[in-house]
Every structure is written in C-alpha cells, then in structure tokens.
C-alpha cells in the first residue's frame, strides 16, 4: 500500500490526487530552472518562493475539497522532489545557493581579512549601496530556504547532501585560489579562515549541521592534495614550504591522522626513487636527510613518520664510502649555525646511540616519569614500533639523527678529531674561539672523556697564538715573522709528513731558531721540533720588474728554492738533492709548472725543468691556476712506476699522435694497443688506466690537449702565440 492509499479509502480519489500533484511537478521544476538563470537577483528568488507557496496552497486546497483529508508533508514531496532524483535536485538548486554565497562574501568583504586578501573588486561592487543590497539578499534568501525545508513539498531531505556538496566545492575553489594567490602555498591560518567562513555561511542558511557533516571530508581532501607534493615540501623546499607542512599537520590532527600511513609510504617511495640513487652525491642526500628530520618533526609530534622515512635514508647512507667524512664536514661547516642553536636548546646531558634505545620503553625510566607527568601521557600511535618509548623517539633532533648514521659515537668523535686537527693546523682562516664554543656544545651530548683530546688540541692552538705574540714582541727586524701551531704529540692525530733533507733559506732557518729559543725560555723543560713539509710560506717574487706575492706550501717551496741556485734542473738532480722519491719529486715540479713558476721544453727533454721567464705566468689569478693549497692525488707506487716507464716512449708518442691520419687525434685505447706491442709476452704491460694517466699528465703540462677523449699534440706555433698574448 502506497502512502497515497493510506490517505483515503477511495482508490479513485487517490489517483486523482496523485495526478494533480504530478501536474504541479512540471510547474515547480520549470520555475526552478527558469529562475535559476537569474538567481543572483533577489526578485527572482522572491518569484520562486511565491511559486512554492502557491503550489503548496493549491495542493492543500485540492485535498480538502476532494475529501483526501490532510496529507502528510512527505506525500506530495515524494512526487515533486522524489528521492531518486536527488542528484538532479542538488544540481538545480546549486545556482541559488552559490548566488547566496557570492552575496554573503560581498556583504562581508574586507580587504584586511585573510580570506579576502588578494581579491580585487571593481569599484561598483565595493560601495555602501552595493553592500546594503547584498545584505538584504542574504536576509531575504532565508524565506526561500524555509519553503524548501518546512513546506508541504519538503525538500529538506535533499538539503543536507546539497549544502554539504556545495561546501566541499566552495572549499576546493577557495583553497586553489589561495594557493594561486600566495605562490602555490596554503597556509594553515588561511585554511582555518576558509572553514570558519563556510561554517558561518551554512548557519546563515540554517544548515550548520551540513557543515559538520562534510567538514572531515574537506580536511581529507586538503590532506590528499598536499600529500601529492609532500616529498618536495619536506626534503627539497624546506623551510620554504614550512607553512604548508603546518597545514598538513593541522589536517592530520583534524582527521585523526587520516592518510598518515599512505603519506609515509609515499615519502619512502620518492626518497628511494629520487634521492637514494647513485647519481645523487652524498652531500645532497645529507641535506635532504636533515631537512626531513626537521620538517617531519614539525609535522608529526610523535616522530613516528620521521623515524620511518629517515631510517630508510640512514641505512642507504651507511653503504656509501664517503658518508663519514661528509657528515662531519656537514655538521661542522655547512650547518654549524643551525645545529649550534639546536644543541644549545637541548636539556639532555648525554647522547645514546639509537640502536641502544631500540625496543626499550623508556617511558618508565624515573627521569622521564618525573618530567613527563602522568596527566599529560598519550598512547603511542597505532603505526609506531611496538616497544618504543615516546621520550626516546621524540627527543632526537638533526644532530642526533646525523650522528646515528655513524653507528657509534666513538666513530663520530674520531672523525671530528681528525677534521678539527686539519682545520686548526691547515686552515688560513681558523677560528679557535668558534671551535671552542662548538666543542662546549658537543659536551652537552658527549661525555668529557670522549672529547678530551679535542680539548687539548684547542688549548694547544690558543697557547700557540700566545707564543706567536711573545716571539713577535721580541723579534729582531731582520728575522722573518713566523706563526706556528704547536701540537702535543700524544693528543693530536699523526700528521702526514715526508722525510726530506732539503733546507730552507738562511733567513728562514735563523727565524726558526729564534722561535725555538723563545719557546724554550717561555716553557721550561719543553722544546719544539719543526716539520719541514708541513705549513706554507708567504714569498715575494720579482721577475722582470714585476713583483708578485704568493703563498706556497712548504712541500713545494723546497723544490722552488733550488732554482735560486740554478735556473735548470733535471728530475734526477732534484731527487738527489731533496732525497725524495721520483714520484714525489715529479709531483712537486709539475705543481710548480701548473702554478707558472717553471716550464719545460719537450723538444730538448721531457725531464728538464726551467725557471719561467714570463712574469704574467706567476700571477695568482691566472686562468687555470690551481689553488695554492690544492694537492693532487698521488698515484700508488706501483701505478706511478708503470706510468713513469711510459716516459721513454714520449718522443714516439708525440710523433705518432701528430702524424696520425686523418686529423692528428688519437684515443687512449689506440695508444694502449700500441704500447702493448712494445712489451714482451711474458711481462704485464700497462693497462688502459696507466695509459690514460700518462696522457693526462702530458695534458696538465700543456703538451697535449684532450677533447671528448681524443688527444692532440699542441703545436709549437700555438704555444708561442699564447706566450706572446700573455706577455702583451
């Protein structure tokens, strides 16, 4: 039995009432569609309200006159606005409510409001008269809403889904507008302003319950949108995208961590495919690692997401051979200012390895129970590792996470000690006061005994500066000024030095002896020994009336001073004089050649070195000049001997390349096959790496050029032309 059959016992009367309601359905829908096109005018809304009221009165009057009785409000509504046509009802009513939203925004428009910031209105839309019209529209629109909700046609069952859908669409449009207006960034305060504005609008149409029904869905939509670019926010563009990270945190909080597991898997996948690959250098990975630690700590207070994502990056970093050196350099150089702030804020007196805390629930430790407070206790998230305690997981920062890559604190302290020794002894811009302050901060994380050697090293540097001041105050005018770094042998790492019998000029020797005497007088029962191959000299060179000041490491200065005695030396003569190996002698002579101090004539001999005659070649800013402290990697002894053995074929090699058809270019593979013919079948000849290193040595000396792997002889006329250009 239908709802119409229950109103009367007469089937004929029921059918007539049904037919009458259906006849009015077309009238109502035609009016709705017609007035929707002009719904921005309140007069059209008045007309539609009048149509609804008139149809309702006609239906009630027909029921009374034909003995139908008083029909229930759901009876006629099922025919006028059937539930099966809910999508159509929502679509037809959309222009009315969107017009109401537009007038609601215009009525409350203020350029100082966050939600209205960046919106430019035409002057005719932002006038007191126009604002009054919009306010009147908002007020009078409620009559139309009441007819839909409370009249006999009863469209109320469609209203909640309709208003909820409208709020979702409006929220999406507002969010995208804000992102476009603020450099593709959605701020948390802006999202809150948008949601509050939508809530007020829903209450204006007496449908605030629809807002609460759809609110969680809107936050989930925003969370999904932000999650698509989560990797760029946390690993690439942090802290530029810090505000969007806070917005994501707010959405997670509002939706009870909806989508957090998918977010974690998305971050791990992007890190594995875009970051943890061979083409990305270790320094870039460390920067992304530190950014993930900071950003994910802000986004998730429980730090569960941070440990899962950073754990994958950390395991990959442990497999890279240069990770240890890169981390210590990154901590003490690239990110020292930020880490200094983090370490100064910490209240932990010591740092434990993360592996030691794994599986240990430290919430029940006495110190954590006292500081945490039982009234503020919160359970672990559902995706947290079983057994892990919140204090240990949440107490880490960037410094802890970077040190944890080492696997142990001892390895970190060892590497820090080596780097500190290098920076204090080899850097021209060393800052012992900063290093002392940084070391004091490290003591907050490590035990004093672990950093005792570093403390002594810093004390040595400061004492060295005091000795320098004493020596300078008593120095005779004819003595060369000296600045030294006096090290305690048992606390400093072993310095890499070379044994040599070379002697410095007499002026330097006298200055060193004077420095030693002053030190013995200041520090009784103690003496100093100078390393001949460590440190550098500031020299002033005059050539053809041009004076140039250069800084030369001691290891190369010994070879340069030989040319004060004679302008031409062979490699064997340098070896016999300095008492060094052939490899080290050639390394020093080739470095001086690159610096422009020496030159060689390959036509006469490839083993004879001459003092340069061109003053422009020793200028410090000459293109192609390496840094004064830059040292080339020395080949292993066995490789160097094989490369040196190829020197006997240099004359043949030069002629072979110069006369090689068709363009005088030869690749290293071709020369490798040629050299193999010179060796005996029973001996192991040079491999391709030896041949390439030999040819690159000639490129460094300016005898060959290498373009796209092809080697070509440098012609004498081209070399003379370049020399004349340098002189001019």
From TrEMBL:
Domain annotation Cullin family profile: ranges: 401-593
Leader sequence residues: none
Biased composition (Acidic residues): 628-639
Matching Pfam families: TPR_ANAPC2 (PF25773)
SUPFAM superfamilies on file: Cullin homology domain (SSF75632)
GO process terms (BP): cell division; metaphase/anaphase transition of mitotic cell cycle; protein K11-linked ubiquitination; ubiquitin-dependent protein catabolic process
Region (Disordered): 615-639
GO molecular function: ubiquitin protein ligase binding
GO cellular component: anaphase-promoting complex
Keywords from the named record: Cell cycle, Cell division, Mitosis, Ubl conjugation pathway
Protein family membership: Belongs to the cullin family.
Protein name: Anaphase-promoting complex subunit 2
Gene name as annotated: Cbn-apc-2
């Amino acid at each position: 039995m239908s709802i119409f059959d229950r109103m009367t016992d007469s089937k004929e009367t029921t059918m007539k009432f049904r037919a009458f309601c259906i006849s009015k359905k077309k009238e109502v829908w035609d009016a709705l569609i017609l007035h929707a096109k002009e719904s921005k005018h309140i007069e059209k809304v008045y007309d539609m309200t009048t149509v609804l009221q008139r149809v309702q009165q006609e239906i009630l009057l027909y029921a009374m006159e034909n003995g139908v009785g008083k029909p229930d409000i759901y009876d006629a509504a099922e025919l006028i606005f059937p539930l099966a046509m809910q999508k159509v009802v929502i679509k037809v009513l959309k222009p009315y409510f969107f017009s109401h939203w537009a007038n609601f925004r215009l009525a409350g428009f203020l350029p100082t409001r966050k939600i209205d910031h960046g919106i430019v209105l035409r002057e005719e839309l932002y006038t007191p008269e126009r604002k009054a019209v919009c306010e009147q529209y908002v007020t009078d629109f409620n009559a139309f809403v009441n007819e839909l909700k409370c009249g006999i046609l009863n469209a109320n069952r469609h209203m909640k889904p309709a208003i909820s859908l409208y709020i979702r669409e409006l929220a999406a449009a507002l969010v995208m507008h804000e992102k476009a207006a603020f450099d593709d960034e959605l701020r948390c305060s802006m999202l809150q302003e948008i949601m509050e504005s939508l809530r007020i609008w829903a209450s204006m149409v007496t449908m605030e319950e629809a807002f609460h029904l759809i609110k969680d869905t809107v936050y989930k939509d925003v969370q999904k949108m932000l999650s698509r670019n989560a990797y760029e926010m946390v690993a690439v563009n942090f802290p530029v995208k810090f505000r969007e990270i806070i917005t994501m945190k707010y959405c997670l909080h509002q939706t009870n961590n909806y989508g957090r597991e998918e977010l974690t898997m998305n971050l791990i996948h992007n890190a594995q495919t875009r970051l943890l690959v061979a083409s990305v250098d270790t320094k870039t990975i460390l920067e992304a690692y530190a950014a993930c630690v900071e950003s994910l700590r802000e986004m998730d207070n429980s730090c569960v997401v941070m440990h899962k994502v950073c754990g994958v990056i950390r395991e990959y970093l442990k497999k890279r051979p240069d990770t240890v050196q890169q981390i210590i350099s990154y901590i003490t150089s690239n990110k020292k200012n930020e880490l200094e702030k983090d370490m100064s804020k910490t209240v932990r007196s010591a740092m434990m390895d993360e592996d030691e805390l794994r599986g240990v629930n430290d919430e029940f430790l006495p110190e954590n129970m006292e500081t945490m407070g039982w009234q503020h206790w919160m359970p672990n998230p559902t995706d947290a590792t079983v057994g892990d305690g919140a204090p240990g997981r949440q107490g880490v920062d960037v410094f802890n996470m970077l040190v944890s890559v080492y696997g142990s604190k001892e390895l970190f302290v060892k590497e820090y000690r080596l780097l500190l020794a290098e920076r204090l002894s080899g850097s021209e811009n060393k800052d012992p006061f900063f290093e002392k302050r940084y070391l004091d901060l490290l003591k907050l994380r490590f035990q004093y005994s672990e950093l005792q050697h570093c403390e002594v090293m810093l004390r040595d540097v400061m004492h060295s500066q005091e000795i320098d001041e004493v020596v300078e105050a008593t120095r005779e005018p004819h003595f060369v000024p000296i600045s030294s770094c006096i090290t305690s042998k048992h606390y400093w790492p072993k310095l890499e030095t070379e044994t040599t019998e070379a002697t410095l000029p007499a002026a330097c020797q006298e200055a060193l002896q004077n420095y030693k005497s002053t030190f013995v007088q200041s520090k009784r029962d103690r003496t100093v020994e100078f390393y001949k191959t460590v440190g550098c000299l500031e020299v002033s060179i005059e050539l053809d009336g041009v004076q140039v000041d250069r800084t030369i490491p001691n290891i190369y200065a010994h070879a340069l001073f030989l040319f004060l005695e004679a302008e031409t030396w062979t490699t064997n003569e340098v070896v016999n004089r300095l008492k060094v190996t052939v490899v080290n002698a050639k390394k020093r002579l080739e470095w001086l050649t690159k610096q422009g101090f020496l030159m060689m004539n390959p036509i006469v001999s490839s083993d004879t070195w001459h003092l340069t005659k061109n003053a422009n070649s020793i200028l410090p800013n000459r293109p192609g000049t390496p840094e004064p402290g830059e040292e080339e990697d020395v080949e292993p002894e066995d490789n160097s001997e094989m490369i040196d053995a190829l020197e006997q074929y240099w004359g043949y090699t030069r002629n072979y390349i110069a006369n090689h058809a068709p363009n005088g270019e030869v690749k290293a593979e071709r020369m490798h096959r040629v050299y193999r013919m010179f060796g005996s079948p029973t001996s192991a000849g040079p491999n391709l790496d030896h041949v390439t290193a030999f040819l690159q040595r000639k490129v460094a000396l300016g005898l060959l050029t290498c373009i796209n792997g092809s080697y070509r002889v440098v012609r004498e006329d081209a070399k003379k032309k370049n020399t004349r250009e340098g002189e001019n």
